[in-house]
Known about the structure:
CATH class of the largest domain: Alpha Beta
Helix content: 25-40%
Largest sheet: 8 strands, mixed
Number of helices: 11
Amino acid sequence: xxxxxxxxxxxxxxxxxxxxxxxxxxxxxxxxxxxxxxxxxxxxxxxxxxxxxxxxxxxxxxxxxxxxxxxxxxxxxxxxxxxxxxxxxxxxxxxxxxxxxxxxxxxxxxxxxxxxxxxxxxxxxxxxxxxxxxxxxxxxxxxxxxxxxxxxxxxxxxxxxxxxxxxxxxxxxxxxxxxxxxxxxxxxxxxxxxxxxxxxxxxxxxxxxxxxxxxxxxxxxxxxxxxxxxxxxxxxxxxxxxxxxxxxxxxxxxxxxxxxxxxxxxxxxxxxxxxxxxxxxxxxxxxxxxxxxxxxxxxxxxxxxxxxxxxxxxxxxxxxxxxxxxxxxxxxxxxxxxxxxxxxxxxxxxxxxxxxxxxxxxxxxxxxxxxxxxxxxxxxxxxxxxxxxxxxxxxxxxxxxxxxxxxxxxxxxxxxxx
Length: 418
């Protein structure tokens, strides 16, 4: 799949709604309703995601879980998904798969891991699809206009001193340097609860970025969910845990559109924030520090290029997969999107101030070429990884040849005028 431009109009929306009662869960797609059986416990999922192997393509536990989730979409639902995917491909478009649910007892299911056996790939890594979650509370069908400038509040709370949270701040510093006039970063280092409250009241901000750690609280919810909080720097007199719902109300008052929690054990915090802000990103369970840094770099690279949030998250997952291939780290990035699309941060039509005027090209050409070049880089790295690990990787020859054809097709398109 090749995206010719980097806009939300590339993605068709395919909503899968999961609802139920105390005794049963059912799945709804476009008027079709089917029973749904929860196939894994939270413990099963955590064990699968923590199973590391030398290469993603030989990761049996991940493929097994992903294939099971994919196969749960059976009957009329599977047929509708196949038709929607085929239609998008024939029109050179992508597909946004939206898991729409407020049931806490099924939130542990790793939909980001869905594996399509017919294509031999994880759907949210393929570049053809974006996978997002939405919850009913806080969801709006209204679209938001894109912005000409982003104001980011970057909060750092490295409570252990070993998490390299300062590297997130350096990524954002480079972002400002590369995008003069388009991105502003306000920093809060060594954040305490009191300092965070004060800083948020000094808004408005468009993006809230947190680098630190989350914590799972002892008692789960009555509906089978987890409770999490952000851990900040504290003292003997101040509780260092920051409540997710208080944070949500503060972010809402500050006008935040996207909350990025680049910290372990924050996926349930992101779920809570989705009641208050249009989009929230969290990380489930524990991740390697290198993965958090790769997430940060890839995500903001996409956002600064005016990619919609859901496509930027797809790029961030791909970046994590390149950083630690063969692990389930990449699918721990959870996006809650509470609007019909994710094109409400930087405006793609806003002037790019990083290029000299004499060298500037028409905006449409810049976006198209940049998107093609980015896809070419992903495909070339994937091919290089396969060839490098050919002795231990079970990849079919047709799949490898198909990847080579995609690379040649992209090179031809890049050599032609847009």
